[in-house]
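Anyone else keep sequences and structure tokens together like this?

Example one:
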Amino acid sequence: MSPLTQDLTHDRYCDEIIARTDALRATVRGADLGATVPTCPDWTLRELALHVGRAHRWVGEIIRTRATEAVPHERVPDSAPGSDDPAALDAWLADGAAGTVGALRAAGPEQKVWSWAWEGSTGFWARRMAHETIVHHADAAVTTGTGYEVAPALAADTIEEWLEIVDFARSAGDAHAIELTGAGRSIHLHATDVPGAEWLIELGEDGFTWRRAHEKATVALRGPLTDVMLVFNRRLAADSDRVEVLGDTELLDFWLERASFG
């Protein structure tokens, strides 16, 4: 763990799930729930909120039951609002986040439970749900045209978790991620507002590796850390005037098109 992210404890992730859900609720409150989400065009704003609330409840059920295998979604208590009542949706989102965080805090970070990924623990799920909510709050902010900010440690960790997910997807044979190869090509992510927030992704014949480094690369993505994170998570266009792309722009596009697991 880097100095930038070393303070991200289990409790901090739990705090962020609540804080980011509250931010999502505030963003959705009073907005047009039927609006299309530009970054997830198959969803309306209401469907985005339902996705987040259901993800929280699904993970909460995994934690509460100490599940050792995948929990079918139909076994998860849902109680999602059956109408477009904004107040009901708001209360449902708050309740789901609170219930899941309560289960995570009670379990602590070391409890072994099922996960789809490289680590089966409650700690994995606390981090995963924090970043799930961070990124989907960005979707809501884009849809409503409202402000969006992320603490530097969490923005950096969102980038690193996504790198870990894409690498896991590649090793698991995901059709898009396995194409992320190409000896001699590299991508540099460079946050201009946070010292040390830089990453080098090096593509090889059999996949890719990454590390925190400041080195010349085939292409560099530069800008404020939050904006670099949003581009890397495909929530902000790479040609946005909020960031700068130097070098082989096609390589960055190649990565973004294939790093699409989940």
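And example two:
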Amino acid sequence: MSEVMAQESLTTPWLSVIVPVVNEAATIQACLTALSPLRDRGVEIVVVDGGSDDDTVALAHPLADRVLVSVRGRARQMNHGGRESRGDGLVFVHADTRLPDRADRLIDTALKGAACWGRFDVEIERGFALAGLVGWSMNRRSRLTGIATGDQAIFMTREAFELVGGFPDQPLMEDIEISRRLRRLSAPACLAPRVTTSARRWQQHGPLRTIVTMWWLRLRYWCGVSPWTLAGEYTDVR
């Protein structure tokens, strides 16, 4: 693993945003431009590329503080970004997800309370008829179970990240598993302001098929089926 580009600030940021990417040339500029108000307030923006063969890295460079290269795999990329970043707080954001306004201040307030980790409610872009219902059900399920998904921009203190050993090195359900581990440290801060995420996953395979597939995969994961087995049956467009 090596660092491709870096723009070091003179002060240590309190929060780092980690964005794992692979072939996100179509979305990376919009993603990082949306994060620019946080960067202006001293938040560190770290992009972790998993070996893109498009212009992702070149496009990310002017809009990020650091652009790193990692072994491909979302968990591995997020771990690399988390370990190489400098903030005392970490938030992991998909390239097709937009944080709410003043997300840094919302996270700061949440982590100064009893919780050492948390997530936002999510809203899916209106790309299909059931988008609102799917988003509502994701938020409701998360509040009831204390389990977050990567679409909800999981955040945590660096201490919590290190205590649980980062994301588990597995190809699928890494968000579910780290939630289970973090939940042993504290209940999550479930923030009502919403992140907005792309509908492309649901549009690609159809919303009903995607919903059924994800529920089936999660059920089998909870029953002990290996994430490597499950990963062979499902390919996330991201």
